[in-house]
Amino acid sequence: MVSTRSSSKGTSSTSSQGVKHEREHSVEEQPAKKIKTEFKINRAPVLVLWVTVVAEKQGFKHDEALTMGKSIAGLFAHTKAKSIGIAESSDTTNAKSDADKVSVFGIEINTKKTEDGIRAVNKSKAISPESVTKYLSNAFGDHLEEYTTAMKELADSYSKDEIGEVCYELYEKFRPEVPAGIKGWGRKSALPTEQITKLKK
C-alpha cells in the first residue's frame, strides 16, 4: 500500500513538471512581434514613378512612360543642382535640337523612335526602360506596387487633359518633405500613401 501511494505521487509530480516544461517551451517558441518601420524615400524616384504614371494616363505605353519619367526627373535634378550650387551650367538632355519633341508632364522632352516604340533620350542616347524598372525596384523595394496603385488612383481622378495641367502641382503637394537647399539634396523622408490618395479629385 505504501509503495502504491509513492508511485502515484511520483507520477503526478512528473506529469506536473511535464506540463510546466511544455508551457515554458511554448512561450519560448512564440515569434517576436515585428516592429513596423516607417518607409522613407528621396524625391527622385518618387518623381520618376509619378511622371511614368502621368505619361501612361496621357496615352503613352508603359515602357515609353518609364523612359520619360527618368528623363524628366533628370532634368529637374539638374536644375535643382544648379540652383543650390553643386552643378555647373551645361547642356541638358533637352538641348538637342534635331531630336523628336514630345509633350508630357506639361513640358517638352527629347525623344527618338525605336523599333520598340518612343524612348526619351539622355544626351542623344535612348533611355532603357529596363534600367528604369530596376531603379524603381531598388528605390521602393516591396512598396513599389503600393505606391504605383496610389499614384494611379490619383491620376485617374483627373481627365487626360487635366492631369497635364496639374501634375506638377500635385507632386509638390505629396512629395517627401526635406530641408531646403543643399541640406535636403538626396535626403530621404517619409511618404505615406495617404498623402497621395487624399489629393484625389
Describe this structure in words.
The chain is α+β, with helices and mostly antiparallel strands. It has one domain. The strands form two sheets. A four-stranded antiparallel beta sheet has the order 2-3-4-5. Strands 1-6 form a two-stranded antiparallel sheet. Strand 3 and strand 4 form a beta hairpin. Helix 2 packs across helix 3, helix 2 packs across helix 5 and helix 2 packs antiparallel against helix 6. The termini are far apart.
Descriptive keywords:
four-stranded antiparallel β-sheet, 201 residues, two-stranded antiparallel ribbon, alpha+beta, disordered N terminus, 12% strand
Shape: globular
Q: Give the strand order of the largest sheet, numbering strands 1, 2, ... along the chain.
A: 2-3-4-5
Low-confidence regions:
1-16, 19-36
What structural class do the secondary elements suggest? Answer: alpha+beta
How many E strands? 6
The number of helical elements comes to 7
Task: Briefly summarize what is shown.
The chain has 201 residues and is an alpha+beta fold.
Describe how the helices and strands are arranged.
Elements lengths: L1 H28 L10 E2 L1 H15 L4 H22 L16 E5 L2 E8 L2 E6 L2 E2 L2 H12 L3 H13 L3 H15 L14 E2 L3 H4 L4
Antiparallel strand pairs: 1-6, 2-3, 3-4, 4-5
Helix pairs in contact: 2-3, 2-5, 2-6, 3-4
